[in-house]
Design brief:
- This protein is an alpha/beta fold and 176 residues long.
- It is 43% helix and 19% strand.
- It is built from seven helices and six strands, in the order ββαβααβαβαβαα.
- Strands 2-3-1-4-5-6 form a six-stranded mixed sheet, with helices on both faces.
- Helix 3 crosses helix 4 (92-109).
- The longest helix is centred in the middle third of the chain and has 18 residues, at 92-109.
- The radius of gyration is 14 Å and the shape is globular.
- This is Glycine/betaine/sarcosine/D-proline reductase family selenoprotein B.
Length: 176
């Protein structure tokens, strides 16, 4: 069973919107919020979300180094096989947070990690050449279930060290 940790912002974790944008990093066992949908597809692919790390968008971006260090410590405590940052959909600030955290997990923890967001998210263009980003729709609804299946399959494949196929096969944005 592949053990995954998911990074969510205050909205996707179910804590609210503007009133929780300054939420400091925290962690919870298992899947929460949007992660509950992802957990179902992960289970079908031989994986599970064993923990969730959460941070408000404003807190993360205004205290980037501190937020990343706290989140990395929480992620490390779960001892995951892979880290999934998102799906950020078209929440631009959250997309940036996902990109920065994905880079840090790979560089500092040496744990496979990737992000998920829409093509219109500013984080996609900012990070797609450096990290894998699985494409999602701009909002939930049409296309989200397909994206969650791609995220799940990609997470298991990346964690197992399997060869990664082309962007068309795997659903990530081209890195050129």
């Amino acid at each position: 069973m592949i053990k995954a940790v998911q990074f969510l912002n205050q909205v996707q974790a179910g804590y609210g919107t503007d009133e929780k944008m300054n939420m400091e990093p925290q962690s919870q066992f298992g899947a929460i919020g949007l992660g509950m949908l992802l957990k179902n597809t992960m289970m079908r692919n031989g994986g599970d979300i064993i923990g969730t790390v959460i941070c408000g968008d404003n807190y993360f971006l205004e205290n980037k180094d501190e937020a990343i260090e706290k989140l990395l410590s929480m992620i490390k405590a779960f001892n995951p096989d892979v880290v999934i940052c998102g799906p950020a959909l078209n929440y631009k600030r959250y997309g940036d947070c996902c990109g920065y955290l994905t880079e840090a997990v790979i560089e500092k923890l040496n744990i496979p990690a990737f992000a998920a967001m829409s093509k219109d998210n500013t984080g996609t263009e900012l990070f797609r050449k450096k990290i894998y980003i699985i494409e999602t729709p701009n909002r939930g609804g049409i296309g989200l279930n397909d994206s969650l299946r791609k995220i799940s399959k990609f997470a298991v494949k990346l964690a197992q060290g399997q060869p990664i196929g082309s962007p068309e096969e795997e659903g990530y944005f081209p890195q050129d």
